[in-house]
Amino acid sequence: MSGNVFSSLTTGLGSWPGTDVREAASIVLGELPALPHVVELPARGLGADTIGRTGALMVDVELDVRTSGYRVAQRKSLAGRRAEDLLHFDLDVLEELWETGGFAATHRVLKVQAAGPFTMAAQVELRSAHRVLTDRGAVRDFAGSLTEGLRQHCAELRSRLGVDIVVQLDEPSLPAVLAGSLSGVTRLDPVRAIPEPEALELLDSVLVGVGVPTVVHCCGADVPLELIRRSNADAAAIDVALLTAGDLDAVGEFLQAGKTLLLGLVPSVAPERIPTWREVAAPAVTLIDRLGFPRSVLATQVSVTPACGLAGATPEWSRHALELAGNVADAFQDAPDSL
Q1: Of the candidates 120, 105, 68, 118, which has an alpha carbon nearest to the alpha carbon of residue 228?
Q2: What is the pLDDT of residue 339?
Q3: Which band of pLDDT confidence, cut at 50, 70 and 90, is reported for residue 188?
Q4: What does pTM read for this prediction?
Q5: Which band of pLDDT confidence, cut at 50, 70 and 90, is reported for residue 299?
Q6: Mean pLDDT, the chain, as a whole number?
Q7: Alpha-carbon gap, residue 209 to 203, rounded angstroms
Q8: Are 163 and 157 within 8 A, CB to CB?
Q9: DSSP state, 5?
Q10: Quick one: which of 235, 339, 228, 232 has its CA closest to 278?
Q11: C-beta contacts of 232-236 below 8 A and 24+ residues apart
Q12: Helix (H) or strand (E) holding 94
């Protein structure tokens, strides 16, 4: 793949409402010709959520479920089998649609999503009930398992569909990991922060190891854009509404580094009044103007997404959100200086 495959397009961030994977995949393939993604339907329950689904991708790591959440298991559990079955079913449906819907002739790249190494280490427990994050050796093992699992996942999709694959690492827990603000089993057992140099090294081990273009997605507040800029990620996906004045320098340096911002501009749930595409585009235009960049940057280094996943939206709004995002991206491409 030449250039930055994430630049100047519309894509979704992964999750979708409902439980019908065939309908969801059909909509995503139809609405996102430049960069469709493998859909995630967490409403199906256990194993369909981000953590369970990522666990199904990992190699030589098995997860089970306790009342507190996911926990490392000694052997494959019912929860693990369910997660694997859901994933395999989704890929079978995707392959069928790819062949019968004519998408093979028009689609060249597909995006897959998985929880990143820090979010997995933060949200999964060891058998001792402590977070994986509390054991640096276990964190490294998790990162290695995730890397190999993603490599195999990408290879399978390339074989099935004949397309290039890109990977999105979802890291909602990364800010808390860096800040050391995650709770331990007790107040006397805090979870230490991971220093940025160590975090950067671990993140890069996954980003480089998967062997395909990558984007790091963090749609919460306090996104560590400086860390992502220094990493091997090609792009960062963020919610533009959560940026503060203190984030501007980091955003500017990110763009100066030649990387792409996937800006979450479209609301993830339907607002009381449906915005026009110009209203949706306005925060991105304002951001670029404040940074002093030419608006042509909108056409070369900015892509458009919903603010976060669409699992909490209605099916009607989810489709409309992608249409709005597409209209904004087209305007960025066609006439950014006139916005």
Answers
A1: 118
A2: 81
A3: low
A4: 0.96
A5: very high
A6: 95
A7: 10
A8: yes
A9: T
A10: 339
A11: 232/204, 232/207, 232/208, 233/169, 233/203, 233/207, 233/259, 234/4, 234/5, 234/6, 234/259, 234/260, 235/4, 235/6, 235/7, 235/259, 235/260, 235/261, 235/262, 235/303, 236/260, 236/261, 236/262
A12: helix 78-100
Helix (H, G, I), strand (E, B) or coil at 113: strand
Phi, psi for residue 99 in degrees, rounded to 5: -80, -35
Residue type, 242: L
Residue 1: predicted pLDDT: 55
Q: Which amino acid is at 314?
A: T
Count of other CB atoms within 10 angstroms of residue 199: 20
Query: How many residues are there in the chain?
Result: 339
**95 CB burial (10 A radius; 0-12, 13-18, 19+):** middle
Nearest to 25 by CA among 313, 106, 315, 16: 16
| Whether the predicted pLDDT of 29 surpasses 80 | yes
- Whether 189 has a pLDDT exceeding 80, the answer reads no
Which uninterrupted H or E stretch holds 189?
Answer: none
Residue 2 has pLDDT above 70, yes or no: no
Q: Hey, what are 185's tokens?
A: 């089993």
β-strand pairing of 235-239 with 164-170: unpaired
Rounded to an integer, what distance in angstroms lies between the CA atom of residue 318 and that of residue 24?
Answer: 10
Residue whose tokens read 């981000």? 50
| Region for residue 14 given its phi and psi (left: phi exceeds 0; alpha: psi -120 to 50; beta: otherwise) | left
What secondary structure does DSSP assign to 11-33, as a single string?
Answer: ---SB-SSS-HHHHHHHHHHH-S
* pLDDT (tens digit per residue) in 232-280: 999 999 999 999 999 999 999 999 999 999 999 999 999 999 999 999 9
Other Cβ atoms closer than 10 A to 114: 28
